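Lab notebook: predicted structure, single chain.

Context: the supervisor wants predicted structures on file for every construct in the current expression panel, including those that have not yet been purified. This is the next one on the list. No modifications to the sequence; it matches the entry in the shared construct table.
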Amino acid sequence: ERISEELSQLHDDNPPVGYEDIKEMIETELGGNIENLFAEFSKTALATASIAQVHEAKLPTGERVAVKVHKPNVAEIVETDLNIMKFIANEYDRFNTSLKHLNLPAVLHEFDKSIHKEMDFDNELMNIKHLNDNFIYNDKIIVPTTYPDYSTEKVLTMEYVDGIKLSEVISGNER
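Prediction complete. Output recorded below exactly as produced.
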């Protein structure tokens, strides 16, 4: 019963956060007023996930971009969720010998490292650059241009690439 109580505290909904919170995060991270940083900035999120959400914008130089922004307090929420999962993994490892072969604490340790890499947009920026280097001569793969001057650990600005979801291509419901 104690484990089910811990599991109930995990966050699984991903509603978008309000524009004011996103604006504050961008202004803090990029060190300026959003109206000066971007010629246009959509107040409505294009996409939202547990860690961040994406907004369409236009740079002062005219480029159409996608701005991926950490949700406020996401680091604290992730740490809380990780601590709950670590507690559960350790409890199962201690008291359920049938699961000992899974080494749940080690699995959680790897997940912890992975989620922290995922939350670091500097790391994602570097990965996009490496991807571009690897496919620079392949015209079938589009790697978005990144904008390091408009990116930090919590904000990632890249070229807006209009596309079709793979699920739409597979189902034949292409736009």
